[in-house]
Amino acid sequence: MAQNVVIANPIINSPFAESSRHFFFDEEGITDRIVESRRRSEYFVPIARPKKKSKDKQLTFDDWTADRIEENKTVNFIRQRVAAWREGNYAEITSCTRRLLEHWKSPDRFRRLFFCQIEALETLIYIVEAAHKYGDQVIMNDLRRIAAARLQDGDRLGQDGGDGDDHRLAHAQQAGQRARQPVFRHVLGGHARNHHSRSVAGAVAQRSAKLL
Question: How buried is 181 (Cβ within 10 angstroms: 0-12 exposed, 13-18 middle, 19+ buried)?
Answer without folding.
Answer: exposed
